[in-house]
Specification:
Layout: H1 3-15, E1 39-45, H2 51-54, E2 55-56, H3 61-66, E3 82-83, E4 89-90, H4 98-102, E5 106-113, H5 121-130, H6 142-149, E6 159-162, E7 177-179, H7 194-203, H8 209-235, H9 245-258, E8 263-268, H10 283-302, E9 309-315, E10 335-341, E11 348-350, E12 371-372, H11 373-383, H12 389-395
Helix pairs in contact: 1-8, 6-12, 8-9, 9-10
């Protein structure tokens, strides 16, 4: 390969995010048609959030017996739960989400998760992102397969990942845009330097495919940077919040309102609370607070577009029903999925909940998985994104179970 072709090929790969410069990568897509207005945002809580304290069964006496030091107090007590339905309560750190619950735009599916029994973070996250539990050889992520099935014209910003690298869930044959989180999202990359930009532009004179690919990636990069410029200018005048999710949520809302972003993904870490987890206050509460704030800000910033948006919050598995000797919890099985949005049939905790009696626990230690996480996602794809059964089978191959009915309004 000659030097010029090598440089052009490398720059084209840069445009697809395979060789990202700085903190952002940009990708290409194809398939013309008219876009749909329905949006899906997936938030992944990496590290296995403790769903039993996020949505706690405070009416089950076993909850307090199993967790004498970390159970969140009942509604009405200091730092107590926010009552949801007389049985379950929401962690007080998620108070910003209470208006969405009251507006019936927030729901939960308890005892949900992967049918694969692994307690490995790496494997469980891989399965949840590939959408094929127990199969490590899947080449792409389920959100990329979803993107490939959606009607409408494909563009480099139809799917966006917020974070330093392209995640497994969006990997595949359809290109997506990768945007850095926090203040780094608006920082110029190497290609934004005039001399570097001019040098690469000289390589791309002509009409060959590499030249066209580079130019399209360059325009996509400019489009996203321009959309974020005003937000970044304001944010640079002050320090960001300890957890950057609220900032990222507002940035994402801005991209969604100004552009054609239909699918978005963001991952948040820090949920592996083996030690000093806390109850109504403490480590878990400190992690949850910016999540609640960010989701509330996302809903507000989207404005009328919120009615056409569904947000799914999920984690690779839950945690043990019983606290450990270090004031924390260990790797478990079943967890709680969150659903938010204008189309969500909210104000309800869904799922086949069997209680915390020892006989009801999986391996006498964990909440069992009674709802496959893929069934929840499939219902969102079917009822919100309007995909037929044949396409659902492509996105989630091997899925044979269903989620509780009515999660999404028709």
């Amino acid at each position: 390969m000659d030097r010029r072709l090598f440089l052009k090929s490398s720059a084209a790969l840069l445009g697809t995010g395979l060789f990202p410069f700085g903190q952002s990568g940009w990708a290409l897509a194809a398939n013309p048609a008219s876009p749909t207005q329905k949006k899906l945002v997936v938030v992944m809580l990496r590290g296995a959030v403790d769903g039993l304290n996020v949505v706690a069964p405070y009416a089950d006496a076993n909850y307090y017996a199993l967790r004498p030091g970390i159970a969140v107090a009942k509604p009405g007590a200091a730092d107590g739960l926010l009552d949801l339905d007389g049985y379950f309560g929401l962690h007080p750190a998620l108070t910003p989400l209470q208006p969405l619950w009251q507006a019936k735009q927030l729901a939960f599916v308890h005892a949900a998760g992967s049918p694969d029994a692994t307690r490995s973070h790496f494997d469980a996250q891989d399965y949840m992102e590939s959408g094929t539990p127990g199969r490590k050889g899947t080449a792409d992520g389920w959100m990329n397969r979803l993107l490939a099935t959606l009607p409408g014209e494909m563009s480099p910003t139809r799917a966006v990942s917020i974070g330093p690298t392209l995640p497994r869930i969006l990997s595949g044959r359809i290109g997506v845009a990768n945007v850095a989180s926090g203040n780094a999202a608006g920082k110029p990359t190497v290609l934004d330097r005039p001399k570097v930009d001019d040098a690469f532009s000289q390589l791309y004179k002509g009409d060959d495919k590499l030249a066209q690919a580079y130019e399209e990636a360059r325009e996509t990069h400019k489009e996203v940077m321009d959309s974020l410029a005003d937000e970044m200018m304001a944010a640079s005048n002050g320090a960001p919040l300890p957890n950057g999710f609220p900032t990222d949520a507002v940035q994402l809302a801005k991209l969604m309102r100004k552009g054609n972003v239909q699918l978005a993904f963001i991952a948040l870490g820090g949920w592996d609370t083996h030690i000093n987890q806390g109850a109504g206050k403490g480590q878990l509460a400190n992690r949850l607070a910016p999540v609640g704030e960010g989701l509330a800000q996302l809903a507000q910033a989207l404005g009328p577009m919120w009615n056409d948006t569904t947000v799914v919050v999920m984690s690779e598995f839950g945690r043990t029903a019983k606290q450990n000797g270090n004031g924390g919890t260990d790797h478990g099985h079943g967890n709680v999925m969150w659903l938010l949005g204008g189309a969500v049939a909210g104000g309800k905790v869904y799922g086949d909940w069997r209680g915390l009696d020892n006989a009801a626990l999986y391996e006498q230690r964990d909440v069992p998985v009674t709802t496959d996480f893929r069934a929840v996602l499939a219902q969102v794809a079917e009822r919100h994104l309007r995909l037929p059964d044949a396409q659902l089978a492509q996105i989630f191959p091997g899925l044979t179970t269903t989620a509780p009915r009515g999660l999404i309004r028709a």
